[in-house]
Amino acid sequence: MRRPLLLLPRPLDEFINREQARELLTAGEGAVALPGRIPYGALTRAPAAVRGGVASSIAWGLARQIPSAWRPSETVVVAYHAIQWPAIAALMARGVAEELWYFRWDQYEEAHDVGRMRTLLHDWNARIAEVSALTFCVSDKLVDLEHEAGRQAIFVGLAADAFPDGPLAPTPRGAELIAAARDSHAGGPAGSRPDADSSASVVGDGPVAVSLGHLGRRTDWAWLRGAVERVPELTLLLIGRWYEDEVGHDPDYRWLREAPQAVWLGGLDDADAAEVIAQADVGLVPFTVDPFNEAGLPTRILKYARLGRRTISPPLAGTRTWAHTTTFVDSPEAFAAALREAAGARHHPDAPLRAWALEQTAAKMNAPLHARLRAD
Known about the structure:
The protein has 18 helices and twelve strands.
C-alpha cells in the first residue's frame, strides 16, 4: 500500500479542507510536510534567477519530513496549490517519490488578490497538472476546466464532518447571539438572555437568511443590498469576519453596515454558528459571479444542509455540483421571490436534504483516493 505525503499550504488545523486531509492521513497512514522558514510565497517573490535555489531549499526541508521507513515506490506526493510547483519539481527531482497527485480545491490562479502573480500561477498550475498522475477536484466546474485543457481529472467531493448537525429549530442560544450582535452594533448594553419564545421577536416574522464565511471582496454587496431593499421584512444574519481593508470603500457594503435588517455576528465557533443558522430559513452564497467564485464549491452549502437548510445562490457553475441543494437566482427580483418563498422554513427543516448532507463524510469522499493508494 502506498502512503500520501500531503504538502499542505498551511498547518492542518488551519487548512480549509482539513477534515478530508485528516481522514486521508489517518486512514491512508500518511504524513504532512510543511515548508519551514521559507514559505511557498517566497517562490513568487524571488527573481527568476534565484528561484531555483529557493525551491531547492524548500524541497530539502520537505524531504527531511518524509518518514525514514518510506520507500520512494510507496510514497505519493500530494500537491495543493499552484504556488508550490517549483518546490515540488525540486522535491520530485530528489527521487523521494514516484507519483504526484494534485488536489484542485479552487481556481486560485484567478483569485482577486493574486495581482501580478496571475500569469505565473496559471503556468505553474498547468505544470503541476501535466505531471500529476491523479488530479482530483472538488467541483464539476474544476473537472471541466481540466478536461478543457486536455488533462484528466476526477471529482472528489467535500466533507464537513466536524460541523454540528443540530440544532434543527431555533433555540434561545441562537436568539441570544443575535440579540448580542444587535446590541453591540448599536453600541448599547448587552441584552439579557432571551427565553424560549423569543426567537420570533429577535429575527421578526419575515424571511431570515444567513451567510457563513468570508465577508470581503468575494461578496456581492450590491446583491445583498438589493435583497434588503426589495424585502424590507428580511433579517440578514452575517457570520464571519468582515474586511474593511478589502471593501470599506464599497458603497453597498457601507450601506449594509448601517442597515437595521443586517446583523453582523463576526466570527463564531462552529457550535455557535450552527445555533445562528438554526434561526434562519435559508443559507446564502452571496458571491460575485467571476472566474474565481465560479469554479469552487462553497463548503457552507453542506453546512447549511446538515441543519436542513437549503441555499440561495447566484448562478455559479461550481455550486451547480450540488444543484439539488440550491435555488439559483439570476436577477434581484428572483432573489427577492426566493427569500419570500423560504420564509418559515426554519420551523420545518428539509429532512431529505439533511440526510443527504450527513452521508457526505470524509471517508466516503476520499474512497476513490484510498482505492488508488491500494491499487498495485
